[in-house]
Amino acid sequence: MLKLYDGTTSVCAIKVRLALFEKAIPFESHNIDLRAGGQFDPAYLALNPNAVVPTLDDDGSIVTESSVIMAYLEDRFPDAPALLPGAPFDRARMRLWMKRVDDVVHPSIGTLTHATVYRPGFLALDEDARAARLAKIPDANRRERFTAVYKDGLGAPIVINAVKALNRLILDMQAALDAADYLAGPAYSLADAAVTPYANRLFDLGLLGLWAMDAPRVFDWFGAIRERANFVPAITDYMTDADRTAYSAMEPDTAMRVKEILDDD
Hints:
- The structure is a single chain.
- By secondary structure, this protein is α+β, with helices and mostly antiparallel strands.
- The chain has 2 domains: 2-76, Glutaredoxin, CATH 3.40.30; 88-264, Up-down Bundle (Glutathione S-transferase Yfyf (Class Pi), Chain A, domain 2), CATH 1.20.1050.
- The chain is built from 12 helices and 4 strands, in the order E-H-E-H-E-E-H-H-H-H-H-H-H-H-H-H.
- The chain has a 4-stranded mixed beta sheet, with helices on one face.
- Helix 1 crosses helix 8, helix 4 (88-123) packs across helix 6 (140-152) and helix 7 (157-179) crosses helix 9.
């Protein structure tokens, strides 16, 4: 059976779980406690030297990077319900959404989440513990980004740019969903599975409502997505009390401050 090393609220892990449950592929979930630094455990680093989740173990064949894993599942289980659009142009649009998630949306939502959810816990550490936490991040660019985010929070230029990138995502989703029921055409595809965790993260942060007037079709889409059979087992069932506590610890003026950034965009 497939083994998926994942995290409870990891957006990249959720992408893969959504695909697995949508395709009804059995798998074992091995949770990596990211807040406790489980991704830096030597045994896990042997599987994924980048210290990120998810990692897929298919009987000893190790596959990393969420979008690569999603494509692997399509190749590996072609007889399961296909998540590739039938038309070549729709497939191209699907791949563009997935590329946008990897290149822009993922670092943007990570930046915003760390500036709002995880920053208070980081600031509660002493100076040595903060330095040690940052030093464990193997990628220098990620390390530099998180250093700036933890220092200045929502006031950091990188956070402001992240909010603006997410604004463009939602508005482009609105345009796509004006023309079709799903992001890459008339049927649910890997594009929808890839974008869902990021829309859901904005929902969990209490921020998705900021686009209620400008992107009503996105709200219709997200409502339908939440009713799909893969949503609860891939997302809701993984949430822990610790996860809920972390999201509830955000500063009460977060939405207002994010709206101010949007108004300046």
